[in-house]
Amino acid sequence: MLYREAGQFKATYAEDSQIFPIRQDKIGFWVLMLVFGVAVPLLSNEYWLKAILIPVLIFSLAAIGLNILTGYAGQLSLGSAAFMAVGAFAAYNFILRIEGMPFLVALVLAGLTAALVGIMFGLPSLRIKGFYLAVATLAAQFFIVWALVKFPWFSNNSSSGVVTAQDVTILGYTFVTPESKYVLTFLIVALMALLAKNMVRSSTGRAWMAVRDMDVAAQVIGFRLMRTKLLAFAVSSFYCGVAGALYAYTYIGTVEPEGFNLDLSFKILFMIIIGGVGSIMGSFLGAAFIVLLPIFLDNVVPVIFGDSLGAGFVSNFQLIVFGGLIIFFLIVEPHGLARLWQIAKEKLRLWPFPH
Amino acid sequence: MARQIGDVIVDLQNISLRFGGVKALTDISFNVKEHEIRSIIGPNGAGKSSMLNVINGVYHPQEGQIFFKGALRKKMEPHEAAEQGIARTFQNIALFKGMTVLDNIMTGRNLKMKCNFLQHALYWGAAQKEEIAHRIKVEEVIEFLEIQDIRKTPVGRLPYGLQKRVELARALAAEPHILLLDEPMAGMNVEEKQDMCRFILDVNDHYGTTIVLIEHDMGVVMDISDRVVVLDYGKKIGDGVPEEVKNNPEVIKAYLGTSH
Amino acid sequence: MQFFIEVLVGGLLSGVMYALVALGFVLIYKASGVFNFAQGAMVFFAALTFVGFQEVLPGWLGLEADSSVVFWLAFLLAFIAMIVLGIATERIVLRPLVNQPHITLFMATIGLTYVVEGLAQMTWGANVRGLDLGIVDEPIAWLMDNYEIGVSKFDLFAAGVAASLVALLALLFQYTKVGRALRAVADDHQAALSIGIPLQTIWRVVWAVAGFVALVAGMIWGARNGVQFALTFTALKALPVLILGGFTSVPGAIVGGLIIGASEKLAEVYVGPFVGGGIEGWFPYMLALAFLLVRPEGLFGEKHIDRV
What we know:
The structure holds three protein chains of three kinds. By secondary structure, chain A is mostly helical. Chain A has helices at 13-16, 23-43, 46-72, 80-97, 103-122, 130-150, 178-200, 203-213, 215-220, 225-252, 262-275, 280-305, 310-332, 336-350; strands spanning 163-164, 168-170, 173-175, 254-255. Chain A has one domain (34-350): ABC transporter involved in vitamin B12 uptake, BtuC. Chain A is built from 14 helices and four strands. The radius of gyration of chain A is 21 Å and the shape is globular. Chain B has two domains: 1-85 and 176-260, 3-Layer(aba) Sandwich (Rossmann fold), CATH 3.40.50; 96-174, no CATH class. Chain B is built from ten helices and ten strands. Chain B is globular and about 60 Å long. Chain C contains 14 helices and no strands. The longest helix of chain C has 31 residues, at 2-32. Classes of the chains: A mainly alpha, B alpha/beta, C mainly alpha. Chain A binds chain C through residues 76, 123-124, 127-128, 130-132, 134-136, 138-139, 142-143, 146, 149-151, 216-217, 220, 266, 269-270, 273, 312-313, 316-320, 322-327, 330-331, 334, and chain C through 35, 92-93, 96-97, 100, 102-104, 106-108, 110-119, 121-122, 125-126, 236, 239-240, 242-243, 275-279, 281-282, 285-286, 288-289, 292-293, 296, 306, 308.
């Protein structure tokens, strides 16, 4: 009875094409924003902010990036983590080498650097598709990590490429406490998620989806394949790059290239599969799921199986659960948690009179 | 009749198309005049779809020349053909399966939209205005083709006949000069065929759109076409007004077969 | 010059080992259209299972650890484990996903990779283990004495194994009923089904054969580098091999393997020093990428024409 669109008539096309056309959704959204923007930083403890909430936000951003490329434009990438690495190291170098570089500018520049690298590795997509392209993105994954380790310039000559992020200062305020870092991350991620949503619901997004669904037809109605695909690579890498910079600056502080390995790329891929391929909201759900699952298993597995099994058992058990879930979702609900959420809403719309 | 058939707008001269060793089209010449309904008929595998693919740049013939609006056309990519005002539908429906009917038809207007992705990201001012302006145009097409009730449905869920109609809507949304229709009525029942005929004639009548049509239903072809070209095994065996073609012995032979 | 030949031959022979992994990919791709990302994990799983049985069998049966009974029994049990894995994969992963887009199946095999890796390490532990096939990794004395070229006996042995495996598979495909059915399935699933070829049985057979190939590859790789998790990364190198050779071509897998093996070693030795070394890790992928731009269909693949 609470969730109805009856009586909410749309008199203009602008009203009809809002992100949340139904009033209850809009209210729900703002409640959510208030909870996560204001209540959470006020009420959460340090562990939750540092170990769960900040990484969930950052991975959501990376997942949005991959979702733009894979979910919307249909180009499978196995190299998201490498583009995060580019963003992290680019931000580090911009701040290190340019006197007085403002943090937010460095963040944008980091994203742009990643976008540039993304375009370079996106070029093969003009001639190849599907898993051929997936293998090509592996080249990006391995090459970028190697280059960051091998050329000491990137890490200011530190051994094996380890860098420590500088302080984050905006307009004289230095972000030290987890609460402040969380709020900063939250604002950036929320803004970029909105921009992404706007892109995918307008002509840019339609071009991506057209290329994804049937590239010959897309060309025939006038989309330029090259421009569309490379734009997807650029925007996607921009998002991953900013996520990588945030990963270094508001999350773990000290990063090394090897931390952005193939495993992390797969994790981000898993986030969009579980959260929902081709859904911005799904990116958040998937990131939360993948961050929370290991923590959940760490706490639950010893209780069920006893403590004697050791850390190796838990981590292998995690591998199996991760892999199993991916297969499960692909079989049972290929559109992920986002789709389940939608189905729940549709049910709610009819409740309590389902016929 | 309000429309008047104009000058030759597409002129194909001595086109030959090969895939490896397979000859799809051999030395074909034919033209399309402005505002006319031009049909291409022929048995399966005669090269009809290949013809359309040559016209809108999906395939590039090895030999021959294409004149478009009087000028010799260089090797042209499909999106360039679209920019020149050529739209088409496909034999096996080529809709974007993951998108709604509305979004599918909106893609048809992409060439007329000028905002870039940054403006889209902000979705403010120009981008929003543009989106709404084109939405109005799209709604006109939706109304014209009588598909209002399905505009928010994902196309994958629609029955075949409606999908064909949505595909026509997408092509019409581009406001094309030339519309290439590849078997728009295949697999339809009589009623659906009648609807589709009505739409095609209306488009031709209202907007003066030139139409190149591939169709197997001879009744329909002979009824609505101004001129008909007949292909068999990649060769042209007949060309002219419906009456001429109907009585052409070569055409009759190709369709009915002869004893050798 | 001797040095160049040594590097080249060493590269070619290690390329044979890549080809061995790639072969498993090609088999599965041909028969079921699945790009099996988990082939690398299967190699690891097979090798670990073999070594694991070698460790526990002497205790169970009261035999000497180096007895050949233990060796062959472990081999047999590992093979059975691979068959079980293949059947389970067909039943649990492939069958529910039949007729899904290729890319969905591909992602499912990434999930499968995690499951297989987790299962292997959970069962046998994650320690690095040695694997002894009784062939020493030392230069062939005759070549060394006469031409001063060092070619490892072990590499030559590996090449021999690979060659016989390919020959065996070729015979299987060409001359048996299963092989004929398999080629039919590779050509067109629907058509094969309609003339009464049991698709699921064929897939199970193929996964079992791919499991066998993985076992052989895993034993050779394991003997070379030790049985450890890093094996899965080495196996990933089979992907650029496939791109060079085309996904559906057995000779392509072999030739691609040779090219990748030789070029990565040559690049490491002659280009590596200028850029700080370690380029073996990415060079094959970059080579494959460059190659794709020139010839997207691979060396032996067929050119694909989009029909609309």
